[in-house]
């Protein structure tokens, strides 16, 4: 990505909010798709919880991803929807048998 912008860090820094939003949305869609595929949503959040532990060790000039702490907080807010999607998927799989 840095090459695409000619190593212009100022441009990349201007795009940080856009990149962060895209990452939040990817997290949420991933949570929902995995729930529909049969993966328990609460178990999925454990991966992000592990990231929170290593979050403080990272430092970068440009932040392409939001902090793991903020990503986890947003996923926890979306957990009820993912749980409903998971239950729907379980019912659908049982009905298909």
Brief synopsis:
The chain is an all-alpha fold. It has one domain (9-96). The chain has helices at 9-14, 16-36, 41-55, 68-96.
Number of helices: 4
Integer tally of domains: 1
Calculate the terminal CA-CA distance, rounded to whole Å: 46 Å
What is the global morphology? Answer: elongated
Give the SSE string: HHHH
Average predicted local confidence, pLDDT: 86
Radius of gyration: 17 Å
| Number of separate strands | 0
Descriptive tags:
single chain, 97 residues, mainly alpha, 4 helices
Structure overview:
The protein contains 4 helices and no strands. The chain is an all-alpha fold. Helix 2 (16-36) runs parallel beside helix 4 (68-96) and helix 3 runs antiparallel to helix 4.
Fold blueprint:
Blueprint: H1 9-14, H2 16-36, H3 41-55, H4 68-96
